[in-house]
């Protein structure tokens, strides 16, 4: 499929500087682009490839002063990248139906134009919405609800009575609705606390590979609309994650943690149990949260403190060897003065 540069400018709502009739056949990184390709310059460091690129056109930010024969200027280059990638690579959905090797339990409601691949298992009394795609090796427990146009990749396990919304994407290896890590110690022995709650995942959520979401002890572990979760994230029982939040790889949320809207947690950061993070909190990579964080805060370190204070302390930490040497020198001078007067 080919598109004119003018059509792409219209799609991205950009300002076209050049020939609107140039034919674009694909999109590639700027350093690999050939004639017929368009490239997106979404970071200044890639400007070094301008002399070698053969791209027919570039997409740049509105404040860019780069010179090139054909340019589209846009407000958000990364969003333009997603639009153009979808233009060239999004395939029209072709339902495959229910494979003879798939197992569907009793009293299930199966929507229109679904795709259930071989070795899918759907438990009794479950509901699968229209145009849902479930790949091989997925196991769905009893009484699960899955909303329309959701995509579940291979080897996902969804336990009983979990509720999943519309247009959710679940990548391979996820486990949703396993028991929360709940035990009580009595007379030197750990006793399991029954985990009788569920998991609710709202619309437009995406879960990366090998994400684990535990069911609630009672009530629900709740992932709200638009949340995006990277690979290898652990979400414990009774956690609530607010709308449009982002959790980067290897984040760990302890039981009953509550995240507000638009929270961003960097890789390998973690939160202890019963802690609340307000709306739009940003947590740096490897930070450890041990107490409530007020809305709009940016924190780092362990235990987490304000980013500004953490940077100041880190700068001082790297100066400790020099400070130690200066203190030794001062001590020697003092000892020398004391001896002279003694």
Short description, anyone?
This protein has 342 residues and is α/β, with parallel strands linked by helices.
Q: How would you portray this structure in words?
A:
- There is one protein chain.
- The strands form six sheets. The chain has a twelve-stranded mixed β-sheet. The protein has a ten-stranded parallel β-sheet with strand order 9-12-15-18-21-26-29-32-35-38, with no helix packed on it.
- Helices cover 16% and strands 29% of the residues.
- The chain is flat, with a radius of gyration of 27 Å.
- The chain starts with a strand and ends with a helix.
- With 342 residues, the protein is an alpha/beta fold.
Task: Give structural attributes.
342 residues, UDP N-Acetylglucosamine Acyltransferase, domain 1, 3 domains, ten-stranded parallel sheet
Task: Please specify the SSE layout and strand pairing.
Elements: E1 3-4, H1 5-12, E2 15-17, E3 23-24, E4 26-27, E5 37-40, E6 57-61, E7 71-74, H2 77-89, E8 97-98, E9 103-104, E10 109-110, E11 115-116, E12 121-122, E13 127-128, E14 133-134, E15 139-140, E16 145-146, E17 151-152, E18 157-158, E19 163-164, E20 169-170, E21 175-178, E22 183-186, E23 189-192, E24 198-201, E25 206-207, E26 212-214, E27 220-223, E28 228-229, E29 234-235, E30 240-241, E31 246-247, E32 252-253, E33 258-259, E34 264-265, E35 270-271, E36 276-277, E37 282-283, E38 288-289, E39 298-300, E40 305-306, H3 307-318, H4 320-341
Parallel strand pairs: 4-5, 5-6, 6-7, 8-11, 9-12, 10-13, 11-14, 12-15, 13-16, 14-17, 15-18, 16-19, 17-20, 18-21, 19-24, 20-25, 21-26, 24-27, 25-28, 26-29, 27-30, 28-31, 29-32, 30-33, 31-34, 32-35, 33-36, 34-37, 35-38, 37-39
Antiparallel strand pairs: 1-3, 2-7, 22-23, 39-40
């Amino acid at each position: 499929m080919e598109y004119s540069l003018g059509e792409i400018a219209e799609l991205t709502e950009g300002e076209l500087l050049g020939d609107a009739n140039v034919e674009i056949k694909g999109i590639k990184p700027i350093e690999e682009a050939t004639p017929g390709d368009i490239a997106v310059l979404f970071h200044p460091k890639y400007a070094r490839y301008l002399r070698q690129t053969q791209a027919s056109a570039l997409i740049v930010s509105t404040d860019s002063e780069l010179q090139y024969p054909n340019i589209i200027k846009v407000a958000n280059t990364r969003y333009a990248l997603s639009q153009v990638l979808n233009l060239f690579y999004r395939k029209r959905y072709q339902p495959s139906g229910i494979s003879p090797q798939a197992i569907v339990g009793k009293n299930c409601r199966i929507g229109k134009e679904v795709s259930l691949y071989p070795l899918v298992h759907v438990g009794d009394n479950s509901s699968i919405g229209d145009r849902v795609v479930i790949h091989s090796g997925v196991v769905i427990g009893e009484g699960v609800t899955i909303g329309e146009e959701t995509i579940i990749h291979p080897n996902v396990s969804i336990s009983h009575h979990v509720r999943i919304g519309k247009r959710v994407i679940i990548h391979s290896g996820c486990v949703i609705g396993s028991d929360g890590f709940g035990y009580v110690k009595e007379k030197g022995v750990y006793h399991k606390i029954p985990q009788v709650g569920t998991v609710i995942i709202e619309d437009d959520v995406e879960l990366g590979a090998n994400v684990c979401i535990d069911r609630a002890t009672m009530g629900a572990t709740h992932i709200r609309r638009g949340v995006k979760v990277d690979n290898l994230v652990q979400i414990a029982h009774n956690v609530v994650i607010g709308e449009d939040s982002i959790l980067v790889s290897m984040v760990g949320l302890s039981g009953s943690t509550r995240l507000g809207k638009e929270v961003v947690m960097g890789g390998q950061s973690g939160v202890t149990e019963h802690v609340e993070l307000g709306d739009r909190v940003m947590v740096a990579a490897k930070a450890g949260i041990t107490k409530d964080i007020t809305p709009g805060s940016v924190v780092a370190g362990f235990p987490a403190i304000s980013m500004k204070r953490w940077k100041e302390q880190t700068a001082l930490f790297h100066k400790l060897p020099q400070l130690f040497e200066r203190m030794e020198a001062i001590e020697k001078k003092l000892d020398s003065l004391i001896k002279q007067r003694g």
